[in-house]
Amino acid sequence: MAGAAAASASRVHYLSDFCCPLGGRAGAKPHVLRHQAEVFLSTGREFVYVYDQEGGVLTAVYQFPDQVWHLQLLAIRRALYVLCARTGIYCLSLDNRDRSVIQACEDKEDDTCSTPVIHVDPDACVLPNAALCAFTVLDDMLVTLVQGPTQWKMQLFERPCPGEEPGLGGQIGEVELSTCTPPGGVPGKPSAPCFLPVLSCAFPPDSGAPHGHPQGCGCFTLEEALFGLLFGADAALMQSPVVLCGLPDGQLCCVVLKALVTCGLAPGDPKALVKILHHLEEPVVFIGALRAEPHAEEEAGEPLPEENVHSDCLVALGHQGRTLAIKASWSESGNLVPDLREYCLPGPVLCAACGGDGLMYHSTPSNLCAVDLTRRDAPWNPEKPGGAAGGLPSTLCPASLNICSVVTLCVSSRAPTGGAELLALSSKGRLITCSLGLNSEVPVPPKMTMANAGQKIKELLLDIGDVSERVSFLKKAVDQRNKALTSLNEAMNVSCALLSSQEGVRPISCTIATSWSRLELRDVLMATCTLENGSSFSLDQGWTLCIQVLTSSSALDLDGAGSTFTYTIPVDRLGPGSRREVTLPLGPSESGALDLPVTMSCWLFYSLREVVGGALAPSDPLEAPYLEKLPLNLPKQDGVCLPLCKRTVDMLQCLRFPGAASQPAQAPCVPGPAREPVETFLKTCQAPGGEPAGAAASLRAKYLPPSTASIRVSAVLLRTALEGGHSGSHLCSATLQWLLAENAAVAVVRAQKLSSIQGTAPDGTDVNLIVHEVAVTDLSPAGPIQAVEIQVESSSLANMCRAHHAIIRRIQTMVTEQAAQGASPPDLRMQYLHQIHANHQELLREVQTLRDQLCTEDEVRSCSTAQKLLQVYKQLRNPSLVLL
Amino acid sequence: MSGQITSTLPQTSSSSLDLWREKNNRLVEQARQLTGDSRLSLRRQQLAQDTLEEFGELLLTLQGLPASVPALPLELTVICNYIILKASLAQGFTEDLTQDVQRGVERVLETQNQLEPKSQQGLQGLWHSVLSASSLLPELLPALHCLASLQAILWMSTDHLGDLALLLKTLNGIQTETSEDLLLLLKSWSPPAEKSDAPLILQDAEGLRDVLLTALACHQGLQELITGNLPQALSRLHEAASGVCPPSVLAQVYTALGTCQRKMGNPQRALLYLTAALKVGVTCALPLLEASRLYRQLGDTAAELESLQLLVEALSATPSSALKLHIEVELLLPQPDPSSPLYCGTQSQAKRLLASRCLQTGRAEDAAEHYLDLLAVLLGGSELRSSPPTSSPGPCIPELCLEAAAALIQAGRAPDALTVCEELLSRTSSLLPKMSLWENARKRTKELPYCPIWVSATHLLQGQAWSQLKARKEALSEFSQCLELLFRALPEDKEQGVGSNCEQKCQPDVALKQLQVATLLSRGLEWVASGQDTKALSDFLLSVQICPGNRDGSFYLLQTLKRLERRSEATAFWREAQNQQLQENATRSLPLYLETCLSWIHPPNCEAFLKEFGASLLEVS
């Protein structure tokens, strides 16, 4: 394998598959470690796997009571330390393993699985503590980080050995770090935090450590100058290891271990012990160190033994990719100064590792990159005057390794070739190795022999497999973006078409029609909106038809502002030429009321979030927890709004005519609240003593004279206006037809040439419309003017008003249209007009005063005032005025 | 009202009430068994944690039902047990404990049917309405008083003394504005006794009151001691000592009484208290430290050093702590900070104190041994049970090395002193300015490199060591290097200057000047010894210019001028110097190594010579 690795720049080998819960559970933190040929691996679940890389077999599986959060191997002591969520730290002896495996095998002889699962004995827990979040183990000490109710607490213990009875006597020191936000969840039972703190240990050179730590364990030796600069002269003098701690709030702090010895069991003074190095402002996910400048010996061509490589650059990575690198450098005057730089790498960072040769590897869901932290362009020269000595590169250029979704990494150098080998676990649970050749120049193809041909082909196939996995991921993302772009383009076209044809015929139109229909024993006025796409574009995903229904305020409810209700109907693919109908109930409501007129407005809405948001949000489940942290966050309401039409539904459209011959089946049901049929029956049977509203209305109709209102319109005016549609027919009938044009009864009126009709209002009271011709004599000096009088009669004052209002509205529209066409009014007697005008002014003034009185007076007097007011209104509704 | 509820409670529920009561009693027994063992193990702690969780579950069960009078005594007892266990496990009081207490009070109010309007009043108002309610049943009182004592403890721990006073008044049934003295109020409160068949409780109201009483007296006594109100402090501390007082607290109280007596000028009585504190036997460190202060004040150096020696030994033992599952006085007393009279520090701090006292009292050999021990522990092996004797930010170990070197020179062990200095320089060499860059930089930029002041001091001591070994050339070179560093490097970082001396703070610029003078005089004396009087003269002159009126400088200058027969110059200098007051050497606030170094340079017959010189000048004129 090593020979093959030398041949090419990078080569991926697939080792084994492990089932992974990745992305599913919060706080899952997979780990992979290598010691010689053994690979120790946790996938974020309860299991720790031991895999023999040379034999290619799984040698052991350990099961812990909860998720495994951290692994660390102390090779020199042959011990594996495991942090189990909400339980504590376990210590497994690697020497005893064979025995326990044999035992387990005997236990489960009949089991079919090839590798037995060893349930870890609770006695192996050397440090039970449910609040433990991180640890790092040194040769003779164990440093832990505990989440307290308000603060992080770092504790130092004598290193517990496997099988040792846990005791608090081993605690050497304790210090409180900065404040932390307490985790949510049930108190006493901490829930899994989203991000775990990161601990690592920095050793000064010549301190004898870190022996027995495999690489990537978070322990490293820093070069003297950087060590002293970061941690101070005392730490350098004492040659004390320093624990570096990266917290989820972004703080990077350090504690000198030899100082973390407290008096008694009282916690140490945090001000003296804890030094904050930096604040990344996003959760710290990785702390590491690397050699950014080649050693003098190395430059001379002699590779240094691994343990003598002292790192000269400290690196910390935030979750979103913010990267901190610190190096020691000398100022112009010869002072030692820190060279501290922040970079931005692509995030979210899944894991990272530091390798030799100044390379750091960092993995995001879409790529695994190698980042070079050496300053290759300007090699450092201590004797060279001027020039910033030994600086860090000004920008970082990640070089892709074409592997995606690596969740944990381990770097080791392979001595024979000098290149590095990455051991990685992908999000799908595949354990792979990636050999990175030292020389990435043109690879010389090795001579193909029969012996290695099979191996070669196998490797190639694996390479293809990995690339195809990556391609499919990228392709999916590109497809989504393309789809979003197409959709946006269509939306753009539709918007342009609609907005440019503001006046003329619109390519996309919406018409509204009303009709009565019977629903659940109750007659309901239905509005049917028809959306018609006459354009050449289709309305796709993202478009919504919005219909707003605005009722006018009820006359009885003085300060009611009327209600607004908006229906949103997604338009799911409406191609050119097709139409869609939407039917909405307008009323009467549960209480039987239908407050006319009702205004309906329609518009189209295009949601950017629905279309673009989907493309920006990664579909990979791995990234799901980070979704809300996307920088491009569209507000919920963002979109395009295109108004289509507006329509008012008034009394004339809602009238029903049970007497009209063509609609025998449409006898209006007893109006009012929808109730049980039996209940309705009982209600109607009730004696007049306890009369309900409907009965009161019918009584009123019986005994009170109906309210009336009349409008006179000049016959000439009407004739010209109605010329087109109703030519030939009688004028009165034509007028009635015109008024009921939007009502279903218009056909009957036309057929029977009716000039008066008896209708029923939505609430059941009758409304009569009578049209007849009159001659107005005293208005014009030229003689009597032919006019048409439209009379409205109803036992319900409110319905009469609504009908009157509806008629007035129509006539108003007609008159303005006629005026626009320049019809000349006939000669009029001005004085008479003045008189009428003055009369009306008088009446209006009276109305004003009466209304004011009504507000201030008590009940008895207000009754008579109201009576008077009604009288005046009646006079106003029956004017002697003619519309000419 | 309560009668109604009793009747509505079905008969069967009384049996489940019994079950819950049994569970409570079982859990209390379990906790008591855990307390008994003196060995503190994590497994034991885990068991206690489990017990706490079971208490929590039991509480949830009880509070899931509507509050009723028959169940309330048990419910309140379970709340108390839960809080006591939680606080003692966490070794402190957290905010959520207050909420637990409030929940309990609200449950009582619920049965009194008066919760709704009172919910706005805050905790103090709730307590007032619960305790002053007419419908309060006598069988509820023991548990309610226990809860009240926990509330009092919580308020004391958060320093809400006003609330505490009001609660105590309500508990005592005092309506009027009487005494605000918390101790009196506490003493006059007698919680009702528990009935024999009551559910078990970890700590009853009376026990909690006693804890509170002692803690309060102790706290107040210490406050008075710090502010200097000694008679008041004395009486409060006596109060604390006479109450229920665990041994560790008793030792602290006796020590504080000793401090108090010492400050009042009664050393014999102070000694009696310290002896009593030692007899308590839990922790000897604190009384020993206080004893050393007392002997120092009395001038009994032998006894002082002996007690410091014992202190160092006492601090090497790790205190054994047992698992305590009840609220103790210690929980209510804050950890002493370094400024407190009850702060005794770490072993290395004590060792350093011992070593420096030895050096100051002229026992250089002992001092050197102690310093070497300390350095061996700190710089040597991997053992971690020692921390640097610093409690303030900034490096402390360089200074310690310098003190060690000074002690070694004083003890006549110049080669050892050189070793210490070389070790110091070699270990920090990577942090020091690069001389090669410095040379280059000198030509181009005005910016001076920063060099910690202790680097130059190291060169001074190295020079002194070489001088002791009669190696003139090396000594001169060290002194020159020291001067070069001193005149270039201004301490930019005050924190890292000489002023970081842990005990005596002094102005860094004063220390810098004295260091320059000491080095100049040392080099001058070297020149004199090698017969180069003119070079010596310029050094002496410079020292007097840096620090006008310095006695040692003036002495050496005049002596050299006299030897060179430059009488007129000497006379002129003398007259000029007469105009300025000759200053005493301001050595009081200097770092110990510099103080020691200055003592070597100080001429023994300085005063006599100056007097004689002045007289001879007068004769001539």
Which CATH class of the largest domain in chain A applies here? Mainly Beta
For the report, how would you describe the main beta sheet of chain A?
Answer: 5 strands, mixed
Helix content of chain A: 25-40%
CATH architecture of the largest domain in chain A, by name, is: 7 Propeller
Mean pLDDT across the residues of chain A is: 74
Mean pLDDT across every amino acid position of chain B: 81
InterPro entries (chain A): Faap100
Protein name (chain A): LOW QUALITY PROTEIN: Fanconi anemia core complex-associated protein 100
GO cellular component, one term (chain B): Fanconi anaemia nuclear complex
InterPro entries (chain B): FANCG, TPR-like_helical_dom_sf, TPR_rpt
Task: Give an account of the 3D structure.
- The complex is a heterodimer of chains A (884) and B (621).
- Chain A has 884 residues and is an alpha+beta fold.
- Chain A folds into four domains: 413 residues, Methylamine Dehydrogenase, Chain H (7 Propeller); 136 residues, Immunoglobulin-like (Sandwich), CATH 2.60.40; 175 residues, no CATH class; 56 residues.
- In chain A, strand 21 and strand 22 form a beta hairpin.
- In chain A, helix 6 packs antiparallel against helix 7 and helix 11 crosses helix 12.
- The N terminus of chain A is likely disordered.
- Chain B is an all-alpha fold and 621 residues long.
- Chain B folds into three domains: 178 residues, no CATH class; 110 residues, Tetratricopeptide repeat domain (Serine Threonine Protein Phosphatase 5, Tetratricopeptide repeat), CATH 1.25.40.10; 255 residues, Tetratricopeptide repeat domain (Serine Threonine Protein Phosphatase 5, Tetratricopeptide repeat, Alpha Horseshoe), CATH 1.25.40.10.
- Chain B has 30 helices and no strands.
- In chain B, helix 5 packs antiparallel against helix 8, helix 8 packs parallel to helix 11 and helix 25 runs parallel beside helix 29.
- The N terminus of chain B is likely disordered.
